[in-house]
Amino acid sequence: MNREHPGTHIGGTTTPGIILPAPAPAAQPFLDARAFLLAHRERATEAARDFRWPALDRFNWALDWFDPYAAGNDRPALWLVRDGAPDVQLGFAALSARSSQVANALRRHGARRGDRLLLMLPNVVPLWETLLAAMKLGVVVVPSTPQLSRADLADRMARGKAFVVLRGEVAPSREVALALFRFVRDRLPRYQRIRCIEFAELPKTISGKIRRVELRALEAGRRREGVRAALEFWEEDFPELRAARAETPP
């Protein structure tokens, strides 16, 4: 039931970052069901007996309900109260616009409907902006806490099949590559293990499919010239892994 509005820019083309109201028919069944529950919020027995789930065809909550509701609406949508730090408030219109900007940025980096996005942020404004942005794109969020260990992070990446990863103040590095190598060594037989990890932006078609021919051509060119990508790591680059292998009983 997720969908994007037509076009290539979330928020329309007249005002960048501002979502244009969706056609009413897309949201009407949801609005009717919501109105019913609000009218019966103090009559739980009647609500449970008479409520019917709306029949939704192509409905996106963030685009078809939140953004039209947020248009011109400066009432607080988000209010973060934190110990030892000032409160943070964001109005509906601002949250709508900022989440559209995040959605457009993600799409420029290749995110498409059905992709998995591992989101590792504390309770800060970008967390909520990114959640709304993911809804607008139809991207599946894999929620994670910044307290995850490297092994836990690798496990969530593998289980969620995520290739879009967001975490504040963390970048691809030798340490992350080592954690991934260790993860697969602990869980896969030798013949299934990966030998090389490269952190890179995947070339994609407009529809979101990976350009595998282009990837193979880039890899072949680098091998022919004897050069590596900027963030390319091989298993033999890590003495720690060789030491662990030597200690493993046959």
Question: What does this entry look like structurally?
Answer:
The structure is a single chain. With 250 residues, the protein is α/β, with parallel strands linked by helices. It has nine helices and seven strands, in the order αααββαβαβαβαβαβα. The protein has helices at 24-39, 44-50, 61-70, 92-108, 125-137, 150-160, 174-187, 212-225, 239-247, and strands spanning 76-80, 88-91, 116-120, 140-144, 164-167, 196-198, 232-234. The strands form three sheets. A three-stranded parallel β-sheet has the order 4-3-5, with helices on both faces. Strand 1 and strand 2 form a beta hairpin. Helix 4 packs across helix 5 (125-137) and helix 6 crosses helix 7 (174-187). The chain is elongated and about 70 Å long. The protein starts with 23 loop residues before the first helix and ends with a helix. Mean pLDDT is 79; it is low at 12-24.
